[in-house]
Write a structure and sequence with these properties.
By secondary structure, the chain is mainly α. The chain has helices at residues 7-15, 28-47, 49-53, 62-87, 93-102, 118-139, 145-173, 177-196, 208-213, 221-239, 264-274, 278-291, 293-315; strands at 249-251, 256-258. Bound molecules: Phenylacetyl coenzyme A.
Length: 316
């Protein structure tokens, strides 16, 4: 069945749960969808280093600093796996960065909010990585081979990140009244944007239809959001944090938590460039991208020399 060049045989492969590999036939829409999603995912990992990077020098202990440093380095690595996975679809790293800088490519809404104090580092690890991992565990079974394999590696590291954040929240909730208030305040600010990370409701998500048909998405935005809510509410209760949603309640009939209305107006403003930190995040990325140009040049020159040397060995 492999490599038959038409959309019907492609869909048969998808229905049979086969992985699609870079040289296999794929419909143009499938390729485009993946380039958009994987590059946005990669940009999110890299831009996501900024709110936390800001706290490396102010971590409250050497232990906390080492853990945070390792976590942020992991995020950079995740970005690299994902850029490489997207490159297998025929887009270059330069094009993807250019699309990020021009605003054509998005990155996750969540990284446009500020990390104001140490409790925010706990909330990011616990809620943001916690939401990311629910989505990424599902994406391990995505139909595109390189994306799926990148997700398997990423999930191993992401579960450590979630625990790092939850540990900070646990410590603060066992601390002074002021620390408890800081943790609750961080929870109040990060909860709703974390729910938005899963994207619009299924009924308002233009890409879900194709994504589910092609098994790029194995579960819908709402299904994943619900999974995240169900497991996180219990973790919050365990340490005495209150979920900032007066409509949140256990629904014994369907075995899930019902939640209040998400502010989609805020979501669309943020993803369309009008969040609290959009400008700052992009300017920072552009500045350091420019400053790193000599590194890229040197690395490319080194690579070219190596290729020439290897060719020389082969032909002599
Ligand atoms: N933010 O039709 P759908 C992390 C856009 S990794 C911004 O539902 P789709 C690790 C969407 O692009 C976090 N935009 O779209 C970490 C589309 O607009 P477009 C990143 C969003 O693609 C932790 C429009 O809305 N993870 O955090 C968002 O089928 C800590 C309509 O939406 C991923 O990217 C959003 N949240 O589903 C790092 C996971 N949601 O492109 C550092 C992979 C939707 O047409 C520190 N991505 N939009 O202009 C996905 O699973 C999917 O792309 C969704 C969106 C679920 C995000």
């Amino acid at each position: 069945m492999k490599n038959l060049h038409n959309d019907e045989s492609f869909q048969k492969r998808i229905d049979a749960n086969e992985h699609v590999e870079p040289r296999d036939y794929m419909p143009e829409g499938y390729r485009k969808h993946l380039i958009r999603q994987i590059s946005q995912h990669a940009h999110s990992e890299v831009i996501g280093m900024q709110p936390e990077g800001n706290w490396i020098t102010r971590a409250p202990s050497l232990r906390a600093k080492q853990i945070l440093l390792a976590k942020i380095q992991d995020e950079g690595g995740h970005g690299l796996y994902l850029y490489s996975a997207a490159e297998t679809l025929g887009v270059s790293r330069e094009e993807m960065i250019e699309q990020l800088h021009s605003g054509k490519a998005k990155y996750s809404n969540i990284f446009n909010y500020p990390a104001l104090n140490w409790a925010d580092i706990g909330a990011i690890g616990w809620l943001v990585d916690g939401a990311a991992i629910v989505n990424q565990v599902s994406l391990q079974r995505t139909s595109y081979g390189p994306y799926s394999r990148a997700m398997i590696r990423i999930c191993k590291e992401e579960s450590f990140h979630q625990r790092q954040g939850y540990e900070i929240m646990c410590k603060m909730m066992a601390g002074t009244l002021e620390q408890k208030q800081m943790a609750q305040d961080a929870m109040n600010r990060w909860w709703w944007p974390a729910l938005m990370m899963f994207g619009p409701h299924d009924s308002d998500s233009p890409h879900t239809g194709d994504a589910v048909k092609w098994k790029i998405k194995r579960e819908s935005n709402d299904t994943l959001r619900q999974k995240f809510i169900d497991k996180t509410v219990q973790q919050a209760e365990l340490i005495g944090l209150v979920i900032p949603d007066k409509d949140l309640k256990w629904n014994a009939q369907n075995g899930h938590y019902d939640h209040g209305t998400i502010n989609w107006e805020e979501f669309f403003e943020v993803i369309n460039g009008k969040g609290p930190c959009n400008k700052q995040r992009l300017e920072h990325h552009k500045k350091y991208h420019l400053e790193g140009e000599w590194v890229r040049e040197a690395a490319t020159a080194h690579k070219m020399k190596k290729i020439k040397r290897e060719r020389h060995h082969l032909t002599h």
